[in-house]
Design a protein that fits this description.
By secondary structure, the protein is α/β, with parallel strands linked by helices. The protein has two domains: 250 residues, 3-Layer(aba) Sandwich (Rossmann fold), CATH 3.40.50.150; 112 residues, DNA Methylase, Chain A, domain 2 (Alpha-Beta Complex), CATH 3.90.120.10. The protein has ten helices and 17 strands. It has a ten-stranded mixed sheet, with helices on both faces. The radius of gyration is 21 Å and the shape is globular. It starts with a strand and ends with a helix. About 2% of the residues have low confidence.
Length: 380
């Protein structure tokens, strides 16, 4: 079998590249515009494949390839951003992806974005994206995945959107037959009755679900478990550095903050929350425990100062190395960037484990036939 050739867009610090290298995929060309991210990428992978430029200006330089990857900018769709979606200038960078797919026609693509992309404006933005990709001849399959299911101590839900030429609506790659165990018959009844994407948003109560397949304008979908039926095994306490500089501790300030906070003492989505600021939770003002998952890491500076309780009257923020571990990178991956820059770079990165899982799914021999699942569940 010939080695798969890949192109990596919006490469950042190389989350897709790490997974592709581990999977045995040859990355021919990569693009990133941020100079600090580029310095990290070059340190880890060399300078031969990286093009540091605005992708819109170098589309003609992109070589033919089999697989296109990219975590296109999530800020237009994120709850931590301005939520302008495809109307944001960064959201329109999606058109660069579409242009490459149209010109080069790689057999596969893998894109990644935030969970909110499914629901913004009742799904309007996601519908625009799906219609554009489908119009280029690709069958689309997406799934919401939590990185905690893949061995990371972080509650990070991300949508992976995959495309494949020469695929049918009934062929599914991001599921196993067991994925549908426990799903109510009503939930997956549309596996037997695809709907027209063009008219989907006209139906009152319509929403894009955690998993779906689109082919030739026909859509099927279901709400499947982002945890893939697994229970998190690694907790925040398992990834902590043993020796940490005192600059990361905020003991006296945190004790004062606790007096102005509400005691919570419960787990939410696997995250242990000890205190919230009065008036509700705010980014950077929550105090967490170590016996659960970390909340979703972002590139927002306020998130970098969230406190964790280590022991009685001992509180500190996470280090840049702990950020690397929570995102599935090696400790030294983001050097030579400063610790402050590393928080941003890791918060903006794609966990390699999510990419590797997706590669395993789309390149595994064969697919799951949804028609056979329907018959087994007596839905036909």
């Amino acid at each position: 079998m010939n080695k798969i050739k890949a192109v990596e867009l919006f490469a950042g610090i190389g989350g897709f590249r790490v997974a592709c290298d581990d999977f045995g995929i040859n990355t021919l060309w990569a693009n990133e515009i941020d100079p600090i991210a580029c310095s990290v990428y070059r340190k880890n992978f060399g300078n031969n494949e990286l093009c540091e430029a605005d992708v819109k200006k170098v589309l003609n330089e992109i070589p033919n390839h089999d697989l296109l990857t990219g975590g296109f900018p999530c800020q237009p769709f994120s709850s931590a951003g301005k939520k302008k979606g495809v109307f944001d200038t960064r959201g329109t960078l999606f058109e660069s992806i579409a242009s490459i797919l149209k010109i080069r026609q790689p057999k596969f693509f893998i894109l990644e974005n935030v969970k909110r992309i499914l629901s913004m404006q009742r799904g309007f933005h996601y519908k625009v994206i799906l219609e554009r990709l489908n119009s280029l001849g690709y069958s689309i399959e997406w799934r919401l995945i939590n990185s905690a299911a893949l061995g990371l101590a972080q509650n990070r839900e991300r949508v992976v959107i995959t495309g494949r030429l020469e695929s049918t609506l009934s062929d599914a790659y991001l599921v196993e037959e067991s994925s549908f165990d426990g799903i109510h018959q009503k939930e997956i009844s549309n596996l037997s009755y695809p709907i027209d994407l063009a008219n989907a948003l006209q139906n009152k109560g319509f929403a894009f679900k955690n998993w779906g397949k689109l082919s030739e304008g026909k859509l099927i979908q279901a709400d499947l478990d982002p945890m893939l039926g697994k229970t998190p095994k690694i907790k925040v306490k398992d990834i902590l550095e043993k020796k940490v500089d005192k600059k990361y501790f905020f003991n006296e300030e945190t004790k004062k903050r606790i007096k102005e906070s509400v005691k919570v003492d419960k787990f939410v989505n696997g995250v242990e929350i000890l205190y919230n600021q009065k008036g509700g939770a705010r980014m950077g003002y929550t105090i967490f425990g170590l016996n659960g998952l970390a909340p979703t890491l972002t590139c927002q500076p306020s998130r970098h100062y969230e406190r964790y309780k280590l022991a009685t009257n001992q509180y500190r923020r996470l280090t840049n190395i702990e950020y690397a571990r929570l995102q599935g990178f090696k400790d030294e991956h983001a050097y030579p960037a400063t610790p402050r820059s590393q928080y941003f770079l890791f918060g903006n990165a794609v966990p390699p484990q999510i990419v590797y899982w997706t590669l395993e799914q789309i390149f595994k021999p064969g697919s799951i036939n949804l028609n056979s699942i329907n018959k087994q569940m007596e839905l036909l």
